[in-house]
Design a protein that fits this description.
There is one protein chain. The protein has 319 residues and is of the alpha+beta class. Helices cover 24% and strands 28% of the residues. It has one domain. It has seven helices and 15 strands. The strands form three sheets. Strands 1, 3, 4, 5, 6, 9, 10, 14 and 15 form a nine-stranded antiparallel β-sheet that branches. The radius of gyration is 21 Å and the shape is globular. Bound molecules: zinc ion. Zinc ion binds next to helix 4.
């Protein structure tokens, strides 16, 4: 989206499955079971891991649920068909392109027209602001287990009703990963905060078979590191921090329809300041508990509540 990195929030996470977890691999038959865990060859051994794309999907669908409690238009329906009034931004933009031949769907226009969820997670027209690393097992290895998949039709879409097949789940173990939020607006950080809290409280399920009780995961949230690169102003002042969103850092923010002068003054609290190279790179580290969520959360809530859909004429009711 932007050619330059202006701000970044890196969030360290450790995910602990509680009970059984199944992350399907497309080529599972090779291992002799019908649905197996994804594996990677690492240091000469086969290892199960949690793909970053799978984690991102989980975070997105949870964020969609949070968004819809505030405003039904704050999250498009990525699975919705042409007649869905919440049809996805990606397909609504395709439609806009077809109907308005002259429209210039450059990144700023796409960002401005997309729903808040697409602005954070991306769609077929723009990259998202949030990236997830693959999560690798650390410490005691997770244990693979084969289970009988009778009656699992609810998550295979009904095709194998009555059929018996094997699936491979894992139990135990822990997976280390990190989220990266780059060139973010403050409301985006706020939304991520709500998802993190639910992950920490074990309210988010991952992978397949959720309706059968699989997929419970509890996250331990490590450090949150905020980087500001080349900001003109000081992020840290005597007793407070000036947190800045992309709208306050980026000359063309207005073209993107970003929050103007996106800033928040919060008490310094227990942040660890690594003011490395004057203003060229300013770095702050927080624990999850010490992060100013109380101040940032309302940025997201009011953003979602006041969001006005600009693609409404291209969603729903199509043929
Ligand atoms: Zn959308």
């Amino acid at each position: 989206m932007f050619k330059r990195l202006l701000n970044e929030c890196k969030i360290d996470l450790t995910l602990r499955p509680e009970g059984a977890l199944l992350i399907k691999s497309g080529l599972a038959q090779v291992s002799g079971v019908d649905m197996a865990w994804v594996t990677v060859d690492r240091n000469g051994a086969k290892e199960v891991y949690l793909p970053g794309s799978s984690l991102k999907g989980t975070i997105r669908s949870h964020a969609e649920r949070i968004a819809r409690t505030l405003n039904e238009f704050a999250a498009c329906n990525t699975l919705g068909g042409k007649r869905d009034k919440q049809r996805s931004c990606g397909s609504a933009l395709d439609d806009m392109k077809t109907k308005k031949k002259q429209v210039d769907l450059s990144t700023p226009t796409v960002y401005q027209h997309s729903c808040p969820l697409c602005r954070l997670f991306g769609n077929t027209w723009i990259m998202g602001r949030l990236a997830t690393e693959d999560a690798y097992a650390v410490g005691e290895a997770p244990k693979p287990q084969q289970r009988d998949g009778v009656g699992i039709d609810r998550f295979t879409g009904g095709a194998s009703r009555g059929a018996k097949f094997e699936l491979e789940v894992i139990t135990g173990g822990q997976f280390k990963t990190a989220l990266h939020l780059q060139n973010f607006e403050l409301w985006q950080l706020g939304l991520v905060g709500f998802v993190l809290q639910d992950l920490r409280d074990g309210l988010v399920r991952m992978g397949s078979g959720k309706s059968r009780g699989l997929g419970k995961v509890v996250a331990e949230i490590g450090d949150l590191t905020l980087h500001y690169i080349g900001a003109k102003e000081k992020i840290v002042e005597d007793d407070h921090l000036n947190l800045l969103g992309a709208g306050a850092l980026f000359a063309e923010a207005e073209k993107y329809g970003m929050v103007k002068d996106d800033r928040l003054q919060v008490p310094k609290g227990e942040a660890t300041i690594k003011d490395s190279m004057a203003n060229l790179r300013q770095t702050l580290t927080f624990s999850f508990e010490a992060f100013p969520w109380k101040e940032i959360a309302p940025k997201w809530v009011s953003y979602a509540q006041t969001f006005k859909d600009r693609l409404d004429q291209y969603r729903g009711g199509g043929d």
